[in-house]
Amino acid sequence: MTESVKNNLQSVRNRIAAAARRVGRSPDEVTLVGISKVQPIEKVQAAVDAGLMQLGENRVQEAAGKIPHIAGDVHWRLVGHLQRNKAKKAVELFEMIESIDSERIAQEVSRRCVNLGKNMDILIEVNVGAEDAKAGVAPSQLTGLARLCASLQGITLKGIMVIPPFDPDPEKSRPYFREARRMFEELRDAKIDGADICHLSMGMSNDFEVAVEEGATIVRVGTAIFGPRV
Ligand SMILES: *Cc1c(COP(=O)(O)O)cnc(C)c1O
Question: Which CATH number is correct for 2-226, 3.20.20.10, 3.30.428.10, 3.10.520.10, 1.10.287.70?
């Protein structure tokens, strides 16, 4: 079981590198984040032991139970929707929050960070497919929320995160990734005071190669590394 995690991890790394080279990018420009939600501790530990030091979780409670059991210098981030009443715990557990999706949650995370004397890197999650059931701000709200985040103490806005509508054909994600990249570059070129726009988080197990071709700097990969979530 742990052997397959090691092999999967190597294969994902190779595929990221190949996708980057296809479009003239350096593989070093892409950070692989393993999404360990629901996965057994032994598999997560196997990935860490094989050198995967960036891990992501989508729920605060689950992460709080898991993080103490994983040995190693792991950098944990939150990739799922954050509720206000879990902001304090999230600020204690994570080094980055990729899923800021409202002014209220940005303000609460900021307040908690200031209280703890901590600085948190954040991304704004954008609902790039304008799906009703998905988290993330509407594209039209991105600039406003970005300006607010940049003005708040204790947090540093680093970019955006998107999850396109799921389709088994990864090519169907490409137009959404292109649109996300356009939004990312527009935000970066706006040169908002207090922000440091350098990350575009997109691509999961099914479509991370397309995401890398379209400019992702962070890919979030779960099942392709750890196997199906059971
Ligand atoms: C679960 C999850 C992933 C990883 O999904 P896989 O398809 O297993 O790679 C990535 N990002 C977010 C926000 C997730 O919730």
Answer: 3.20.20.10
